[in-house]
Specification:
This protein is mostly helical. Helices cover 77% and strands 0% of the residues. Helix 6 runs antiparallel to helix 13.
Length: 312
């Protein structure tokens, strides 16, 4: 018996919400480490090139799993949607990479919390979902939090602040597309085609800024790929352990972890307005996520009862 077996058994015996919190804590720590690796590369390696290295090395690290599963998951008729998902994932990845490389890291991460707000807006035209008054108000409050961070009229607006918003918008498209794909496609196939498409897609912008890496860049490049894969692993485990409504609040852990890395490694002191804006954005996003979870539960109950769900 492995020495870790008793600890693993004890961990698995914990309530799902507790296990989800631990997985998200690990994911937040890995996200902060990934951000630090991107920032460390930035003086010599452009974020667009780092995004390509993350994609191609992430695929290489997943190769053993892909070789075991690809023969059973290649068949699909939804390549157009898979390509759209890869493009959205590329936009999200590039937006985040540019942001953490060129902005104060805490500001960059705070602005990415707008992703659920973009999902709320995109679900109306793309999924035909209604947008009711409370969600409208929450969405507007959330985007007001963006203004708190960038403070137009009170501070010079850095155009780079658009990068994390691009990342959040790309992530919102990813959520919408994966929701469509998951109706017919297994998770393994969705992951496989994301990896297959993203490596060549991210290579194209990387070629315009290419600098041949030196040996001293290699630990940071590998760090980006490894930590990014671990982020995906931990988040997947968290969502497998508990409902989304129990997992989402822990996403806020990315901010203090990333701010700590920014402070210790790059002497970045977070602006108090960043914390205030982040709380506003995340609070609004959390409200929207809670409404979505309640609506999903009502829809499931209505389907079981054979009745129409009430509005959220």
């Amino acid at each position: 018996m492995s020495l870790l077996s008793p600890a693993a058994a004890a961990f698995n015996a914990l309530p799902g919400a507790v296990r989800a919190g631990v997985w998200m804590l690990c994911g937040a720590a890995m996200f902060a480490a990934m951000s630090g690796c991107i920032k460390a590369l930035e003086p010599d390696i452009h974020p667009l090139q780092a995004a390509f290295f993350r994609s191609i090395l992430g695929a290489v690290l997943m190769l053993p799993w892909l070789l075991r599963t690809s023969s059973t998951i290649l068949g699909t008729t939804r390549h157009g949607l898979y390509f759209a998902r890869a493009m959205a994932s590329t936009a999200a990845q590039i937006g985040v990479f540019l942001a953490v490389a060129w902005m104060p890291m805490a500001d960059a991460i705070a602005l990415t919390f707008t992703a659920p707000l973009f999902v709320t807006l995109l679900a109306v035209p793309l999924l035909g979902e209604p947008l009711r008054a409370r969600r409208w108000v929450a969405t507007l409050v959330g985007f007001a939090g963006v203004l708190v961070i960038v403070r137009p009229g009170f501070a010079a607006i850095d155009p780079v602040a658009a990068a994390p918003l691009l990342g959040a918008l790309g992530l919102a498209f990813v959520f919408i597309i994966v929701k469509k794909l998951s109706a017919t496609e297994p998770t393994e196939r969705i992951v496989f085609y994301m990896v297959a498409y993203m490596a060549p897609i991210t290579l194209i912008p990387a070629l315009f800024v290419w600098q041949t890496p030196d040996w001293h860049h290699l630990p940071w490049i590998l760090g980006v790929a490894v930590t990014a894969n671990l982020v995906q692993f931990f988040i997947t485990k968290a969502y497998g352990a508990a409902d989304a409504s129990a997992v989402v609040p822990f996403d806020f852990l990315r901010l203090p972890f990333t701010a700590l890395v920014g402070y210790l490694a790059f002497a970045q002191v977070p602006d108090p307005w960043t914390g205030i804006g982040a709380v506003v954005i995340f609070g609004a996003s959390l409200f929207v996520a809670g409404r979505e979870a309640k609506a999903a539960r009502r829809a499931g109950q209505a389907a079981a009862d054979g009745s129409a769900p009430k509005g959220a």
